[in-house]
Amino acid sequence: MKQSDCTYSSLPNDVALKIASSLEVPDLSSLGCCSLVWRDLCGSDCLWKSLVRERWPLLNEAALQDPNFKGWRGFYKKQHKEVAGRAASVVKFVEQCSLSESLDVSNYLKAIECLRSMQFGFKDVQMVLFKPKLNVLLNLVGLHYCLNCLQVPASHVTEALQSSKISDRQVCVKWWKLGRWFYGFRMRDESHSRCISLQDLATAKEEEVLGVLERGAIHEVLQVQISVAESTSNLWSNQSPQ
């Protein structure tokens, strides 16, 4: 222990903090076990406040008005434990709304808004929603949330999809647009559909699909339906907007 303390004392405090700030949470916790000096430094509020802000960028100040607030490290641990419980409600909601492996865009956007209200971060989405065992519609909700709400760079999202082995999973989006007027007559409603992988959506190869998902059923778009790719032929074989 004395040797570890001596090693630390040979480093300027700002250099030691710089080293600690470059570590992920598990490594930071391990470093804090090396000695009493490193434990104090790795428990510094300045480090854990930065980690909280990085993981939960949508966190508002109201969330910090907790009478039991005992520092940023404790707050990080508390938030981390609550993630699973909060995510379970979103997973249950989407699964209930997509029993036929198809999800209406209104419920899809509602699920994304739930993540926003829970102040989910990018790591939370990776841990909870970027799982191959989940319905691909849940993967899509997480993908959309990261791109549009958290503004995570597409390259980071693509890397996360690939590491989770879900980048090639596909969804199909179908939407019906109000028929155009032509010389006083309204033409038949137009039907559009696209089958696309999560990776292609992340890299904006189908900007029209992303736009439809973001806007939902408004203005000229009458209905938007999102489906698991494998079940599309069964779900949409004779389907028309209600």
Automatic annotation (TrEMBL):
SUPFAM superfamilies: F-box domain. It comes from Herrania umbratica. This is Uncharacterized protein LOC110421106. The lineage of its organism: Eukaryota, Viridiplantae, Streptophyta, Embryophyta, Tracheophyta. Residues 5-51 form the F-box domain. GO terms for cellular component: SCF ubiquitin ligase complex. It holds the Pfam family F-box-like. One of its GO terms (biological process) is protein polyubiquitination.
